[in-house]
Amino acid sequence: MTKTWLVTGTSSGFGRELATLLAQQSDINLVATARKMTDLAYLDTYDHGQIAKSLLDVTVADQITATVQLAQDRFGGIDVLVNNAGLGYFATIEESDTAAVRHLFDVNVFGLAAMTKAVLPIMRGQHAGTIVNLSSALGLVTLPTMGYYSATKFAVEGYSQALQQEVANLGIDVMIVEPSGARTNWAGASSQKDVPTIADYDQFKAQVAGTDASAGSEPGDPRQIAKLIFEQVTSTQPTPKHLPLGHFASAGAQAHLNDLLAEIKNLSAISESADQA
Ligand SMILES: NC(=O)c1ccc[n+]([C@@H]2O[C@H](COP(=O)([O-])OP(=O)(O)OC[C@H]3O[C@@H](n4cnc5c(N)ncnc54)[C@H](OP(=O)(O)O)[C@@H]3O)[C@@H](O)[C@H]2O)c1
């Protein structure tokens, strides 16, 4: 049976690779979205009547409504929503720019939430659907200068884990994807960098200043990541709740979670003593 996928942020990176893969499947309808329609011209090669393009900035409510309506009108529903659109931000916590941080949350968290809220009534009506939320390895473990980016992805984790429990009996799956660094525009054009100017943070200067130069040499292959997301949604039952991708997301997160577990165990007597009749 033909399934309809709606993917946000298909102009570049994971979104573009996933859209390219989906556009080649005869049993998939694709709603591809971008902030500039010209960024979707690459899909014309594959169009055989099962691709709809929509202008979508996930911070613009009217564009969300119009995109979801387009999917309904053209294909009669939405089976898979991929909340992929996202930005990066590199700065120490103290030196982060408040306006930049608010915009980061608007896109990475509130944009994803607004898309989800718009699509959930359709999926509840179908009693079926899959929501794929792009978190990050940095949604599991964090690093200096990545605090606010991680805060958005930790927010995506908490939001998605609650949603998993709320919609489990409604036929809706939620898969959280946690990629490690990959060769997309994310660390380059898609992220603001505020290089430390306070001398106490000099140790992080080179790291932030060098991000643009090192962007593009990350280990993660966006095409392979798109393929893995596609395979997990289409071929794995039950759909995994988490999809950590790359060495850092796997080994790095395991080391962090083992440390956290050990810390919680060490404190268990004190923790338990907080509950008093
Ligand atoms: N690459 C990595 O290392 C990595 C690792 C873990 C997680 N991620 C996450 O993966 C997702 C995809 O990123 P990517 O790595 O593929 O980077 P990318 O190549 O920069 O792609 C990001 C996409 O999001 C779109 N976007 C940005 N702001 C938007 C907005 N307000 N409304 C709608 N679309 C918007 C971009 O569109 P424009 O072209 O118009 O800017 C672009 O299509 C993000 O959520 C990112 O946080 C990336």
TrEMBL record:
Q: Does the keyword Cytoplasm apply?
A: no
**Family designation:** Belongs to the short-chain dehydrogenases/reductases (SDR) family.
InterPro entries, per database record: NAD(P)-bd_dom_sf, Sc_DH/Rdtase_CS, SDR_fam, SDR_oxidoreductase
Q: Which residues form a coiled coil?
A: none
Extract the GO molecular function terms from the UniProt entry.
oxidoreductase activity
Which lineage ranks, top first, belong to the organism behind this chain?
Answer: Bacteria, Bacillati, Bacillota, Bacilli, Lactobacillales
Pfam families attached here?
Answer: adh_short
Gene3D superfamilies documented for this protein:
NAD(P)-binding Rossmann-like Domain
Keywords associated with the record: Oxidoreductase
Protein's recorded name: Short-chain dehydrogenase oxidoreductase
Q: Which organism is it from?
A: Lactiplantibacillus fabifermentans DSM 21115
